[in-house]
Amino acid sequence: MAATNIHIRQATANDIPSLRKLIEASVHGLQAEDYSPAQIEGALKSVYGVDSQLIADGTYFVAEVSKSQSRESPNKPTIVGCGGWSKRNTLYGGDQYAAREDSLLEPARDAAKIRAFFVHPKWVRSGIGGLILEACENAAKDAGFTRLEMGATLSGVAFYRAKGYVGYENLEAPLTNGEALQIVRMAKNL
Fold first, then answer.
1. N or C: which end of the chain has fewer CB within 10 A?
2. How many of the other CB atoms lie within 10 Å of CB of 118?
3. Closest-CA residue to 63 (of 82, 50, 77, 76)
4. Which DSSP state fits 127?
5. How many angstroms separate the CA atoms of 79 and 92, rounded?
6. Residues 6+ positions from 58 with CB-CB distance below 8 Å
7. What does the pLDDT look like over 81-128, one tens digit per residue?
């Protein structure tokens, strides 16, 4: 499906139930080659998830397809991807992640955070991630940021590298089930 058939808009609180389903489908469908089942389940319970602060800040986007192009529901637009940027210090993690730090960043000094990107497996490689990333980068730049950084999953590293991000630190996010999730801190200058 061509990227021109996809509409990007700001997420709202009404999207949260659809986002939860999308995140679970994306993680199960796209991360199984990089993480064990225990890591995936632990991450879904303790790290991955909807970040309502991003939605409240107006910095979280959804990609949706119209009813005529939807593979899921022929009667209404379907959310097929999501992702955001943050002006807050938290590098990764949804509402349930205990190590969040939501203090505001200083655009002249700090890097905005690219956060919580998920695409439905049926829509992978259709340009969705690139469209959302472009919206995030433009919005962060408009807010005065000149640098971006993220905690990329192993599954996302190649995508972000192709978009100009450089990995510079390997991290492990501790999970509540005793597992750890390997992520890569990546950055890009705008």
1. C
2. 26
3. 82
4. S
5. 21
6. 10
7. 999 999 999 999 888 887 788 899 999 999 999 999 999 999 999 999
